[in-house]
């Protein structure tokens, strides 16, 4: 991938290229599942926001989280509700507010899509030699430490199998 004006730092360019290759390589099966559920990328983002929240969220908060207007958020939520992927209930304290939550089928969809992405990465790592695995572990440790402050929005619990209420499986003793 070539983007004009991004090559002034060769290390950043190489890192960007590798990240894009891995993201694109890991999303083929996930995108097939997204199509199977007939989801737009906006709807998929909303499902991930709901999954990460772990509790019902007002429509307005969901729109803010993904940068949508209230009307566009409402349309996306309507489609997800019609597909049975979310539930929509009145706020017990203010009936004007609708709270949206993942339904069981919505949770299953997110889990299948996340597992599909993870499988591609797991296959890549599984093909590495012991020496390559050790080198990758060191690089990942360094990246995790260096990126934690620079990219604080990503929670460590966002790994396959983790839920907002369960510990990160990578941090659970075996």
List keywords for this structure.
single chain; mainly alpha; Arc Repressor Mutant, subunit A; three-stranded antiparallel beta sheet
* Integer count of domains: 1
- As a percent range, the share of helical residues equals 55-70%
What kind of sheet is the major sheet? 3 strands, antiparallel
Shape: elongated
Within the CATH hierarchy, at the fold level, what is the topology? Arc Repressor Mutant, subunit A
Structural class of the secondary structure composition? mainly alpha
Quote the average pLDDT.
Answer: 85
H/E element order: HHHEHHEEHH
Query: What is the top-level CATH class?
Result: Mainly Alpha
Overall strand count: 3
Cross-sheet strand order for the largest sheet: 1-3-2
Rg, nearest Å: 19 Å
Give structural notes.
The chain is mainly alpha-helical. It has one domain (10-149): Arc Repressor Mutant, subunit A (Orthogonal Bundle), CATH 1.10.10.10. It has helices at residues 10-26, 28-36, 41-53, 59-66, 70-82, 104-126, 130-150; strands at 57-58, 86-90, 98-102. It has a three-stranded antiparallel β-sheet. A hairpin with a 7-residue loop joins strand 2 and strand 3 (98-102). Helix 3 (41-53) crosses helix 4 (59-66). The longest helix has 23 residues, at 104-126. The N and C termini lie far apart (40 Å). Mean pLDDT is 85; it is low at 155-174.
Outline:
The chain is mainly α and 174 residues long. Helix content is 60%, strand content 7%. The protein is elongated and about 60 Å long.
Please render the helix and strand layout as text:
Layout: H1 10-26, H2 28-36, H3 41-53, E1 57-58, H4 59-66, H5 70-82, E2 86-90, E3 98-102, H6 104-126, H7 130-150
Antiparallel strand pairs: 1-3, 2-3
């Amino acid at each position: 991938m070539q983007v004009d004006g991004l090559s002034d730092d060769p290390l950043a360019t190489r890192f960007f290229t590798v990240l894009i290759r891995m993201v694109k390589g890991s999303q083929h099966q996930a995108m097939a599942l997204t199509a199977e559920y007939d989801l737009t990328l906006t709807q998929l983002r909303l499902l991930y926001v709901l999954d990460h929240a772990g509790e019902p969220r007002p429509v307005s908060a969901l729109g803010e989280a993904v940068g949508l207007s209230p009307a566009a958020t409402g349309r996306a939520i309507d489609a997800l509700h019609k597909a049975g992927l979310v539930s929509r209930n009145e706020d017990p304290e203010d009936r004007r507010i609708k709270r949206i939550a993942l339904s069981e089928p919505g949770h299953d969809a997110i889990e299948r899509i996340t597992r599909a992405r993870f499988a591609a990465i797991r296959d890549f790592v599984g093909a590495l030699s012991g020496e390559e695995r050790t080198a990758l572990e060191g690089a990942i440790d360094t990246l995790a430490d260096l990126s934690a402050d620079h990219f604080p929005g990503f929670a460590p619990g966002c790994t396959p199998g983790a839920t907002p209420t369960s510990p990160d499986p990578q941090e659970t003793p075996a």
